[in-house]
Design goal:
With 259 residues, the chain is α/β, with parallel strands linked by helices. It is built from ten helices and 14 strands. It has helices at residues 2-24, 30-37, 41-53, 74-77, 82-95, 108-120, 131-137, 162-168, 193-204, 243-251; strands spanning 57-60, 63-66, 101-104, 125-128, 144-147, 151-153, 158-160, 173-178, 182-184, 187-190, 206-212, 224-225, 234-237, 255-258. The protein has a seven-stranded parallel β-sheet with strand order 5-4-3-8-11-13-14, with helices on both faces. Strands 9-10-12 form a three-stranded antiparallel β-sheet, covered by helices on one side. It is elongated and about 65 Å long. The N and C termini lie far apart (57 Å).
């Protein structure tokens, strides 16, 4: 029995170390983890598989990536990384200057962009499913707002569901502006499956698209991927990503703008 307890303790400590390493170095490979922790690659692969089953990481080719945790409610997120989001918004609005009709997703960063749009833009139409976005835009009486109907999600303050999807399919826009819970080499994703469905529909209904997300979303994976990078035109962030994420953006000719 003492041997089993000691063995379990070693395994638990090793897996905690793996999570800590991935938090600092999101694209660490199996061989590098094995060397650093002085165990075999087979041991590391077993650890990664069990961590993936627990929903703590996502397996990638030759390694692993931390999963984005459940996001706090919107009211809490709005108090985090405020200066970074404001810088992203300042960079985003000039890119949208020629647009007349917009679709906008929910989230703290898109709400910040909406406030900037209300300050700088006039005589535009915005289709929104987020009450925070609609409220920010309503500060400018020249902006026409179409509110998406559907099932209300209290934590996000936004409308989702089949009715929202059907409504969006009847409209088109010059631009869609979307946030993300996570940005991985596979594409942008959201913690809410329902939001992912809305975002994917908005993308299909818009001529051009823009993803706005701060650096804390880099090299993470969330539940609902709503696009591949080949579907995305432009991303604006407060920092430039590195490693595999930077390479996949370049390979898919995604225009990266840093605020």
């Amino acid at each position: 029995m003492p041997y089993s307890v000691e063995k379990l303790s070693k395994k638990s400590r090793r897996r905690s170390e793996i999570l800590s390493i991935l938090a600092d170095e999101p694209t660490t490979r199996v061989k590098a983890l094995a060397s650093r922790l002085e165990v075999t690659t087979e041991t590391i692969r077993r650890d990664l598989e069990e961590l993936a089953e627990q929903g703590l990481i996502s397996r990638t080719y030759g390694g692993a990536m931390l999963r984005a945790g459940n996001e706090p409610v919107l009211s809490h997120r709005e108090r985090q990384l405020v200066s970074e989001r404001e810088a992203i918004a300042r960079r985003a609005v000039p890119e949208l200057a020629e647009g007349k009709t917009f679709m906008m997703g929910s989230g703290a960063t898109t709400a910040t962009v909406a406030r900037r749009m209300a300050f700088e833009m006039r005589n535009i139409t915005v289709i929104a499913h987020s009450f925070a976005v609609a409220t920010a835009l309503a500060q400018n009486p020249t902006i026409r707002i179409l509110m998406v109907p559907g099932e209300y999600h209290a934590g996000e303050g936004a409308m989702h569901g089949a009715q929202a999807i059907r409504f969006l399919q009847d409209y088109s826009a010059d631009w869609v502006i979307l946030g993300a819970s996570a940005l991985s080499p596979d594409g942008p994703s959201d913690a809410l499956i329902e939001a992912g469905d809305v975002y994917a529909t908005m993308l299909r209904q818009s001529s051009q698209n823009l993803v706005v997300a701060d650096h804390s979303k880099f090299d993470r994976m969330a539940t609902a991927r709503y696009a591949r990078w080949s579907d995305i035109d432009t991303i604006i962030s407060d920092k430039a990503p590195e490693g595999p994420l930077a390479k996949v953006l370049d390979r898919n000719e995604v225009r990266l703008l840093v605020s």
